[in-house]
Amino acid sequence: MELHVVIEGDKDLAGQVYRQIKEAIQSGRLAVGEQVPPSRLLAQQLQVSRKTVSEAYARLTMDKLLAGQVGTGTFVTAATQPQPSPRRFAAKDLAAGATLKNWLGRSMPLQLPERRSAYDFFGGGAAKNHFPVAEWRQCILHGLRKSQAARGYYSEPQGLPVLRESIARHSAFARGVQCVPMDVLVTNGAQQAIDLVARVLIEPGCTVAVEDPGYPPARLTFASQGAHIACIPVDAEGMMVEHIPDDTRLIYVTPAHQFPLGMPMSLARRKALLKRAGELGAIIIEDDYDSEFRYEGRPTDSLQSMDSEGLVAFVGTFSKVMQPELRIGYLIAPPAIREAVTVAKHLCDWHAPTMMQWALAKFIDDGYLQKHIRRCHAMYASRREKLLSRLNTDLAPWLQPIAATAGFHLTALVSEEVDMHQLLQLARRVDVGLYGIDVFYHEMPPVPGLFFGYGAIETLDIEPALDRVKAILTEIA
Fold first, then answer.
1. For residue range 295-338, what is the model confidence (pLDDT) as tens digits?
2. How far is CA 432 from the centre of its chain?
3. Mapping DSSP to helix (H, G, I), strand (E, B) and coil, where does residue 147 land?
């Protein structure tokens, strides 16, 4: 690595080298103990004589900033007193200060707590200890070999054709989605898929309809693009379609497993939503975040599979099925916006990492994904059964679960006699992580309830965790 020194003109060359290295040491760019290049090498880099560099090094050595070690080289020995920093603009002083203030005022929702509890019901986490690491390692090595054999250029914004084919087959098999590989856009997580649709459809002042309660990152993404957010209430059948405003151009829903309440959208409500979107010419984002795991009742069609007018953008993710750190999602875009979101993806980050795409394609095609889903399904079903058994028996006086047929979280409404804030605080003291659903409401009055994620908590930990919750409820209620 070359040391950053810039020579201007042909006067006082040694002084220029001396001052720039001294400033680098003072500012901390050259840390104590760091080796500087040999004088011959730096002279070649700067296209000056070796004598010039040697003179600069000698002055720095006299200042006790550098020290030579026989046989090893020259090293930074100590930093001088730092010079006063020049004035730097604060965010409010910039020409874009008002815009920055708008961003700085936004929250970053659904972040992990600073300290995880021993018994934690945080949502969105998968069963990491049960992930098929050996099989995934094989796929990663396959991806590395494929990447090494590639031309060494950038890849397609839509994603590798082999992965798009795999995703098209998987989504058709698992969710009945009607698509071909050219409809698939590989994204960095479902969040980017939502953001890309927002980028190409939203302009300041337009209306976007979202569920309330709903998924905060999606709502905040739309708001950050300048949209007016229409918060639509939900009932036992899902989003109440009759409340969608006439000027809506984008609708965001989670029909398979409403986030966070958990109930599926009824067939009648799905038909009404598609009809309403057709009347408005509005695109629907169907966020199908965890519906691979279904436990009871007949499977329901995806909204996209019922769409005959090309208005549903289907968003899926492998974060919930595999690992959140994977950050690979996908968008099955309707023809009307396919080219636009591809351009947006290209301008945003060009493409997802190709090595991971090769690996995931092999993981799907070799059957590892379906095997992993089946294993997790049995495990999550057992955890769900344990939760529901307790919620419907000894915890029933205080907690009422909402019927949910899919996913790996469920919500329980809390009776009015329970102080939610006190419950969460006392649970944390006994090492149980409980989470309220009030953070998912925006305009609608919050209903007191608990969000039980059972993907990451071990099966054997559920009973002792709920024992502690019962003891707290008995005490405070």
1. 876 667 899 999 999 999 999 999 888 888 888 999 999 999 99
2. 25
3. helix
User: Among positive and negative, which fits the CA dihedral 360, 365, 369, 373?
Assistant: positive
64 Rama class: left (phi>0) / alpha (psi -120 to 50) / beta: left
pLDDT for res 431: 95
Burial 69-100 (b: 16+ CB within 10 A, else e): eeeeebebbebeeeeeeeeeeeeeeeeeeeee
**pLDDT per position as a tens digit, 164-197:** 999 999 999 888 899 999 999 999 999 999 999 9
Q: Maximum Cα–Cα distance for the chain, whole Å?
A: 87
State the pTM of this model: 0.86
The CATH classification of domain 13-76, taken from the options 3.20.20.70, 3.20.20.10, 3.40.190.10, 1.10.10.10: 1.10.10.10
Q: Which pLDDT belongs to residue 59?
A: 94
Second CATH level (architecture) for the domain 119-125+374-476: Alpha-Beta Complex (3.90)
CA quadruple 70, 74, 78, 80: dihedral sign: positive
Bridge partners of residue 314, in order along the sequence: 286, 332
Count of residues in the chain: 477
The CATH number of 131-370 is: 3.40.640.10
Between CA 312 and CA 244 the distance in angstroms is 16
